[in-house]
Sequence to fold (707 residues):
Amino acid sequence: MAGSQATGADVLTRRERWLGWVGGSLFTLCLGSLAVVLVGGLLQASFGSYSMTLAQTWRAVFNPDVIFNWYVWEAFLFGAELPEMGHDSLIVWHMRLPRVFVGILVGMNLAVSGAIFQAVTRNELASPFILGVSSGAGLMILLTLVVLPSVTIVVPFLVGTFVFNTSQLLPVLAALGGAAAFLVVYAIAWKNGTSPVRLVLAGVIVSTVFGSLQTAMFFFAEDIGIVQSAISWTTGSLTGTDWKEVRMILPWTVLSMGLALVSSRQLNVLLLGESTASSLGMNVEKVRFALSGVAVLAAAASIAAAGIVGFVGLIVPHMVRNIVGSDYRKLVIGCLFVGPALMVAADVGARLALSPVQIPVGIVTGLIGGPYFLYLMRTQDRMGEI
Amino acid sequence: MPDDRPPRTDGGESALERETDRPDDDSDRSGDDLTDEPASASKRGASEFAGENLVIGYPSTDEPVIGDESVAVAPGEVTALVGPNGSGKSTLLKGLATQLALDDGSVLIDGEEVHELDTKALARKLGLLSQENVSPTSISVEELVEHGRYPHRGFFDALTDEDRRAVDRAISLAGVEPLRERPVGSLSGGQKQLVWIAMVLAQETDVLLLDEPTTFLDLHHQLEVMEIVQTLRDESDITVVLVLHDIDQAARYADYMVALEDGSIYARGPPEEVVTEALLADVFEIDARVEETARGPRIEPLRPRHDDEPEGQCGDPGADR
Fold:
């Protein structure tokens, strides 16, 4: 310890060392998460109805003809014609890996969305779905599947017409339903401004009502297939996801993650409480709405690709906070890595545990999330406020 | 520390403007020899800060807590708001800090209406330390103080050298240099309060409002806080307004006092004019003995007064309620 005669340089090096230590834990966390994603991805690529050896998979995954081929990526990311490629590479890159990529994006979105909502409500138990997003999306999913099962929508456009089937529109409708529910929650909570408690209460009200309506919809479902499809949407599933889903949510993910990263200082100031934030010159109401909007955008994107995956958005910010602390500049970065790790690992279980039967990934995240919270409850005296 | 406060014989030139429309003004009340003159700058460059015809209430109640009061604060000096629980002193401070919407009236800083200022521009002129503050436990003292620079930074701006110097100045003025890298969660209540004060100091405002900064602190940290306030008065142009629960402390450290009772200003002026046995009986409902000392009036509380008791129990001629 330098003690009282610490010079300026001393203070600086001590600060650097301290920063290095914290940065180190964040770095280790990110590296560990990357390893989990990599192992999970390789497992997903190796196993399935067409079985390959690990060596075969490895060669197919790291096939330079695919990775460094612009036309392949054009096909994946912009939906162009897929060029010729080997059988193994086709299976791995076209059938199995898209699911891993969707898992990565969904995990990021949910984790960061949860982290933002935990700052906005100043409550560690907030999740991406706390402001009614999941209930709005769930109701919309049920409405689409049950009430309008096969309505075809024809939209006349400048040249020709767009023809949509409602089942094709389901992801978009679900995301829109979630966003609409969020706006309803905000409108209910608004009374000369909002407060975290009123927002959460309004979220509970809207979730309860929409949840009831959603359950009522199950009653009118005509066959078990619709019910199963509805359940897989409302518990969250990556089954059958494709590059199409990647293309759909990638832009929204990049946008919302970028916004979350640049807003991390605003999130830190929000954590100091409403009155401090506003006496520091923050327009708390505006910032809160904008940040909630970013979080809802991320959550809605994840719903559009995978349905309502629970627990990821709740526990990932927790795990990261326990390791790197509550500085959002680090927390958001940590969430960007740990969210995908959890999601990909859970999806390995969802796809391969009961093979050939696949279960919705939301069931696995719930099975992981519950015990993790039990563990937290037993080890931490104080939970709740950040 | 020698008593280096400004002379307190300037009652006729007081910086505290008296409200004009109190119906029950009676002429023998302390502080009545103040004139109606507006604040006169006692320090060059210090900010003028005033609230005019303030009506302040909470959204949940119909009746305003503060009903049509005006306060003009002495620029560059320390003004203490005192009063019993529920007298509206914190409400008045929150109204002045624009934390509560005004039902009527206006708050002016250097002649500008504060509600017309952009929130960040206002936060560069006017700082507020609330009574209770929360922060994540893992954040370091330095990081918390850096948040004080929020109003000086744009959305994408990193900390500039000027910001870092302001943070260093605030940390050394608040005397929390040894705590700099400690997580806030590991500090005692008193240390935390000093750190929060460092944060508002880093804001580098012209006017600083402190809401009960010494309540719940041990004596050592109470004196630390008041020493910072004293330093601000002696060595800077910052205008300080603080709510103090302890009237003795207010009498000792403040240049001017404003005593509130039931949402209206009962008396205002330098401590020796405000702190009288009559005021303690009327506003605080206690019998007390007030002793004039070189450090201002000293109060020896004797007993609480009850409405049904006969008057003037302690033989105090001023207790004429």
Remarks:
- Residues 251 and 301 of chain A are 9 Å apart (CA to CA).
